[in-house]
Every structure is written in structure tokens, then in C-alpha cells.
Design a protein that fits this description.
Elements: H1 2-43, H2 48-52, H3 66-74, H4 77-108, H5 114-125, H6 133-142, H7 149-153, H8 160-171, H9 175-183, H10 188-199, H11 201-217, H12 220-225, H13 234-245, H14 250-281
Helix pairs in contact: 3-14, 4-8, 4-11, 8-11, 11-14, 13-14
């Protein structure tokens, strides 16, 4: 009896030690990711002198909110925001329509060379996007899409990754429900909108968020396809702000960076539970 009590006590102590070690590691990992964000936000409200100071000033002595005003006036952030919102909303909507329709087709529709085409699309996931930059630019230029919303949106409308995630989610859905809908006379569009999409809601939200962040943060393609300041998006606009300020006013540059990053950080914090639910619910199925 005494031996059992001692063994249980030893086991509970080991579990307690393991939990402490695990929590300590989580705190360290969280600090690694949080500290750069904290430094960004704190620097956005510091005078430039405090940003350059060494040793580092982690807590601002005086909140310099004028950095945001300077950044807004030194670069046309109003136009940048409008362009980014238009490109993100329309681009994400097109991505989701194409990805959802493709995922449904690869899951439920029989057609020739289905497996080969799916493997080719998976190959697109392994191809760096920079390889297609020149081809996309020449095509957009021939169509007269340089410095237009069409040029910003259409070349990035496809999403092989989103299609793959949605297809894997739809593979886990019960086929009996879809067969019953077909017996009742439902067509593919009705089945897609009434059954497949609602039953794949967590993954739909996850893919939407991934697409929103991808389009919002895109830098290379908007930099190439736009030629005027009025058509720039926020990431490119941040480069414009830096060229305006040089290295003299890093407070304004940091404030501009916060204005670019903050919307996506807020979106992620509000929707992180859907992302977890989407990936945990959409287990990979062959």
C-alpha cells in the first residue's frame, strides 16, 4: 500500500514537472513571436531618437502619436487602403469561387484524366510563384491590364492550395447525404450551395482567411504591375513611404507598418478558432 502511494506521488511529481517544462517552452516560443510585434507597435509611438537609442528602450517614455499623422500625410495611405480593400475583397471572392467549384468537381464529378489533372494542380503548389511573374506580366501587358485592378486581381485568381484544402474536406463528408439529394432531384449547383459549402464551413472560413492574408500582403506582383502611386496597394505603399522618409524618420515608417499589419492581425485574432476547427475537421483523406 505504501509502495503504491509513493509510486503515485512520484508519477504526479513527474507529470507536474513535465507540465512546468511544457509551459516554460510555450512561454519562450510565444515570446519569440510576440517580441517583434511588440517592438513594432512600441516603435510606432516613439520619437525617432528613442528608436535609435542603445541599449534598447522597450517602453516608450512619451507616446508620439504624430507618427501616424506624419505617415498618413507623407504617403497617400487613403488610396493605398482603398486599393488594398478592393483587390483583397474581389480577389478573395474569385479565389473562393474557383477553389470551391474545383474542389467539388474533383470530389464528386467523374471526368477524363481527373487524377492526372489533380496531380498537375498539386504540382503548382511546388512551383515558386516568381517563375510565372514574367509570363503573367507579358500577358497582362498585352491585354492592357498594366496599372489596373484587373491586372492586380486576375493573374492571382487561382488557388491550388485552397482547392486542395477544400477537396480534402469534402472527401470527408458523408456520401449518403449527397446521394439522397440526387435522388430528390437536386442538381450539382444546388448540392454545392446547400450541402457541400455549409458542411465544409470551418474549412471554407480557413481558406478564406488564408486567401485574404495572401492577397493583402502580396508585394511583388503589385509592385510590378502598377506604375502610378494612385494604384499602389499598402505593402508597396509602405516602400513608397520609406523612399519618402529615407532613414530619417523611422517612427513614421513604423507607424505605416502598423497600419499595414494591424488589419490582418485583428482578422487573425478574431478568426483563429475557425482556422483551428478547419484544419482539425478537414483531416486528410486519400
Amino acid at each position: 500500500m505504501k509502495v503504491d502511494i509513493e509510486s503515485r506521488s512520484t508519477t504526479s511529481r513527474r507529470r507536474g514537472s513535465s507540465k512546468i517544462i511544457m509551459y516554460a517552452l510555450l512561454v519562450v516560443i510565444a515570446a519569440v513571436f510576440i517580441m517583434p510585434l511588440y517592438w513594432l507597435f512600441s516603435s510606432a509611438v516613439k520619437p525617432s531618437g528613442e528608436i535609435y537609442r542603445f541599449p534598447l528602450e522597450w517602453i516608450p517614455h512619451h507616446l508620439h502619436w504624430s507618427n501616424f499623422i506624419n505617415a498618413w500625410h507623407d504617403a497617400p495611405f487613403g488610396s493605398f487602403f482603398v486599393n488594398s480593400i478592393i483587390v483583397t475583397v474581389i480577389g478573395t471572392a474569385i479565389k473562393m469561387v474557383l477553389a470551391t467549384g474545383s474542389a467539388y468537381a474533383f470530389t464528386f464529378l467523374p471526368f477524363p484524366f481527373k487524377r492526372v489533372i489533380f496531380l498537375l494542380l498539386l504540382g503548382a503548389l511546388m512551383t515558386p510563384g516568381t517563375i510565372t511573374l514574367l509570363t503573367n506580366y507579358l500577358t497582362a501587358s498585352d491585354l492592357g491590364w498594366v496599372d489596373t485592378y484587373a491586372g492586380l486581381i486576375v493573374p492571382g485568381a487561382g488557388s491550388a492550395f485552397g482547392m486542395f484544402l477544400l477537396r480534402q474536406q469534402m472527401m470527408t463528408l458523408p456520401r449518403e447525404v449527397f446521394e439522397a439529394a440526387r435522388v430528390d432531384g437536386a442538381g450539382h449547383l444546388r448540392i454545392l450551395l446547400r450541402l457541400a459549402v455549409p458542411m465544409s464551413r470551418p474549412m471554407m472560413i480557413t481558406v478564406t482567411l488564408i486567401s485574404v492574408i495572401e492577397v493583402w500582403n502580396d508585394f511583388i506582383w503589385p509592385l510590378i504591375i502598377t506604375t502610378t502611386t494612385q494604384m499602389r496597394t499598402l505593402p508597396v505603399g509602405l516602400l513608397y513611404l520609406k523612399s519618402q522618409e529615407g532613414y530619417n524618420d523611422w517612427g513614421a515608417i513604423m507607424a505605416g507598418t502598423v497600419m499595414v499589419a494591424a488589419p490582418m492581425i485583428i482578422v487573425f485574432l478574431l478568426a483563429q478558432r475557425y482556422i483551428v476547427a478547419g484544419f482539425s475537421g478537414g483531416a486528410v483523406k486519400g
